Amino acid sequence: MSEHIIVFTGAGISAESGLKTFRDMGGYWHEHRIEDVATPEGFSANPQLVLDFYNQRRREVLAAQPNAAHRAIAALEERFTVSVITQNIDDLHERAGSSRVIHLHGELLKGQSSRDASLVLPLQKPEILPGELAPDGSQMRPHVVWFGEAVLRLDEAAEAFAQADKVLVVGTSLSVFPAAGLLQYTPDDAERVLVALDVQRRPEGFAFWRTNATEAVPRLVGQWLGRAGIPENDGSSPR
């Protein structure tokens, strides 16, 4: 049986494809009030504003392309069983070729009923418009986890982490919970690597590469596919 690799990704990997982050300086939460565009209450108060906000995010995602880090992660499937667990709502992992992706915070290219969160369907066009209804007759809304809503597929993700032989964390500050708490399920004997430019806390047992995903991930994946070991690293950059 092949080794099981968990790849846990955040906004940093998508930022290297040109997608603006939400939390970083200059990100969306510095331009828009969270309460207005990322809560059920904001949607009820001004659905047009919320739909317009995510319609623009959707157009940006469709214009973006997977980068070298996305493609390298997909290449791991040549030899390993790979589960990608992502906090991102874009589809760049799928377009790069990853076949098993768990989206914790939803998928921007899908819509859902505003009445029944389990009623989810792919969007056939980039926009969701006011008056556009889900099959149950309710207003369609983005399939995105808003503040105050439950993270998706959390139990499934925790089970995957618990079965990991290797864990690769890419492009996340590990500051968003409960998603960041998934790392606690990593087996003690699993090989663990963190690739990020900034983290609020360095998780115990992780080799830390403070560099861009497009620089570090292809090299690390090449080592793993070549059955080479990971070199000692001082946290500044892969050598």
Q: Topology, pairings included?
A:
Blueprint: E1 4-9, H1 11-15, H2 34-37, H3 40-45, H4 47-63, H5 68-75, E2 81-86, H6 92-96, E3 101-103, E4 106-113, E5 120-122, E6 140-144, H7 154-162, E7 166-170, E8 191-195, E9 207-209, H8 213-225
Parallel strand pairs: 1-2, 1-7, 2-3, 7-8, 8-9
Antiparallel strand pairs: 4-5, 4-6
Helix pairs in contact: 5-8
Model description:
The protein is α/β, with parallel strands linked by helices. It has two domains: 1-18 and 66-105 and 151-239, Rossmann fold, CATH 3.40.50; 20-63 and 110-144, 2-Layer Sandwich (SIR2/SIRT2 'Small Domain'). It is 28% helix and 18% strand. It has eight helices and nine strands. It has helices at 11-15, 34-37, 40-45, 47-63, 68-75, 92-96, 154-162, 213-225, and strands spanning 4-9, 81-86, 101-103, 106-113, 120-122, 140-144, 166-170, 191-195, 207-209. Strands 3-2-1-7-8-9 form a six-stranded parallel sheet, sandwiched between helices. A three-stranded antiparallel sheet has the order 5-4-6. It is elongated. The model is unreliable at 227-239 (pLDDT under 50).
Largest sheet, described in full? 6 strands, parallel
At CATH level 3, the topology of the largest domain is: Rossmann fold
- Put simply, the count of helices is 8
Global shape: elongated
Please estimate the helix content. 25-40%
